[in-house]
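Annotated sample (chain length 487).
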Amino acid sequence: MNLLKKIACFIMAAVLTITLAACAGNSPDVPQNNDDRKPYEKEDDGAFQYTEDTDGDFEYKEVDWEGPKGYVIVVPAGNSEAKTTAETLQGYFQRYANVTLSIVTDKTAETEKEILIGKTSRADSKKDLDEANIEVSVKGKKLVFDGGHDVTVDSAVKKFTRLTYNEGKTYTYSLETNFKTTLGIEGLEDYVYVWGDEFEEARYDDINWNKWRFEQGMIGTKQILTSRDRCVADIDDGRLQLFAINYYNVESPQTRYIVPWSVSSSYTMNYVYGYAEIRAKVPFFEGAWPSWWGGSKCNIPGARVTTEYYTEIDIFEIFGSIDTVSPNLHKWYEEYDYATKHNVADVQHTASGNEKSYLHKDVSNLSNEYHDYGFYWNKNEMSMWVDGNKYQTYDINKSWDLYEDMQGFHDPTYLMFNNHVFAEDSSFRPNVISDNVEALPSEYFIDYFRLYQKPGEGRLYTDSDMTSEERAKYERPVENEMYAERR
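Output written by the structure step:
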């Protein structure tokens, strides 16, 4: 951020009597922001980027290159993942160079002016890179994107599209990522990567709607507005970025905060059994309520609830704590009259008796640190992990209430992210953000989501695997048709 931008940012933040627009566009949930506490830069597209997070930076060199005009993009024949990656690069050059490049396979005749994506049959493509490595190079006139896996090839291209286009120049770099196709966890060595998102999209791109949807997993209040706008849910610097921010609108004076809708896999990926992991920077402070959770109320045909209750799986919630990560399991009885059938006044919907939370030892900079959060699930247990340490295990064959059925915890589940807050009018409020409002804006940044499964165990459901009959019955919420209008 240059000096003029910094000066303008601080001047705007200091003038509290002036209503500042936090987001661009004319959608009904566009907020107004009057925060003056942290040095946020309002980008041209309306999103906020906290200037101190540099975790997504990487080293690169700028070199001479005569493309992209006259070039073609070459992908390995039969590799649909590489073609999708090529389309990302195609869009980058269309946007910034006003050049539309053709995408061809490596079965076509070779030419001098090619952009190679992944392990093509061309001699200039590297075939022996480790799965975690990426390399972007210029060989002769060719621009070559190499990676040890389709995921890292895609990361190589998307990192490139995050860099500024300069005519007559291109960028080269060689990096080792932390991506891995098998787990290095004792006892889980046989688990292999099956689905995920590295969140490498450039700012001009949107969240990958082929992998995620917005939905109201957590509702707002009169004081809390939930929104799909870029000011609270965006992609940048290789991160899914979820913000909770202060809010002011003269037409809605009772509303004080704006938070994102759930970013959910309910309509795109459901699964049974496996190990899911995220690397994330999570806000820890009084009034914060970030979470990673899910349940059995899936929306892909075939991945349906088989019980008279829905499950909720809270991999973690931060209940306004400065150091504590809390998990839990729930049964939600919507069609089963639990109280009448079991002759009790209250429903014990929450697993209890062996709760174990994870306590971060060093809290001096915790809200700015990235940690690994994991969720392991097999036919016997659900367990929660932090930084490779298992700290909580639930026996999912033993009921904690009077309804003995536990099949719901073997039904398919989806997973989602929220960055919520506790307000004065929240129905559940272990603490209240208004007592600690100087902590806002809060940031919940997810570096990656990766799902691993043991071959032959469990199942993966994705919308891309559906039959035509299933797709015809595939229902999506009305809100999902509004994504193009969310800014």
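Annotation: The first helix runs from residue 3 to 14.
Annotation: The chain has two domains: 66-167, 192-485.
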